[in-house]
Amino acid sequence: MIDEFLAHGLPDVEEAVRKAAAIEIMPRFRQLAEHEVDEKSGPHDLVTVADRKAEEHLTASLTRLLPGSAVVGEEAVHADPTVYEALRADAPVWIVDPVDGTRQFVAGDPAFCTLVALAHRGEILASWTFAPALEELATAVRGQGAYVNGQRIRSGSPEPGADLRVAIAHPLYTSDENKRTLARLDVPGVAARPCGSAGLEYLKVARGEMDALAFTWPSAWDHAAGLLLVAEAGGAQSTVDGVPFRVDRDNALPFAVGRDEATAVRIRELLRGA
């Protein structure tokens, strides 16, 4: 069933992602009323009517495209944490972040995106990263490469001798312990900055515009699409215990993503304090 869907159903997924953004997200961009923005865990953890409506739209359309599939969406998991367990079940699962970069979306910044990935038994099979305000769609299918607006992209390797450009988990969303761990990247040869939309940071690595990422949180909806995109562009990733991050298990954190394997290993070892 999955192979058949991957062979023939992917254009329908792209259409569903674009339609959700066109109907539920873009009409609200720079048009949000105060009552349409809520806090979740705190003042920096925002959710809007666009997040909720887009996830509802995608949940209906994606499960219709692939009968028997489940959806693990950010807002559904916030409402019911047991939804996350679908990642460990046998059915195909759609991993959805309806508006990745909600803080930017609320501020009227176009650097937000919709993230969708299809996984089965922990393996990410296909992904879509759609930045509607930037008019960019990045796609990846396992074993078939990474593309932006239909053009193949490759991550390449950092320029020898240049500082590694690294986006790290934003301090607004990190604990004191995580801040101390990330501070290990404050060394000569590494130029670190806080990340924005995780999905767009992954895209920058896949394009070779950033060299690496260091993340301290495990939420599958932030990482699944980007991890496949970077892998298919030629990049690599590793948790601090030396094994790849997977969406269907508990992972040792933080984890590192790099344009190439050597870069991912370099950042991982710094995070370990090695």
Automatic annotation (TrEMBL):
User: Which reaction is the catalytic activity of this chain?
Assistant: a myo-inositol phosphate + H2O = myo-inositol + phosphate
Name the Enzyme Commission number(s) assigned to this protein: 3.1.3.25
A UniProt-annotated Pfam family: Inositol_P
Which class of enzymes does this protein belong to?
hydrolase
Q: Which InterPro entries match?
A: Inositol_monophosphatase-like (IPR000760), Inositol_monophosphatase_CS (IPR020550)
Q: Which UniProt keywords apply?
A: Magnesium, Metal-binding
Task: State what protein this is by name.
Answer: inositol-phosphate phosphatase
Lineage in the entry? Bacteria, Bacillati, Actinomycetota, Actinomycetes, Kitasatosporales
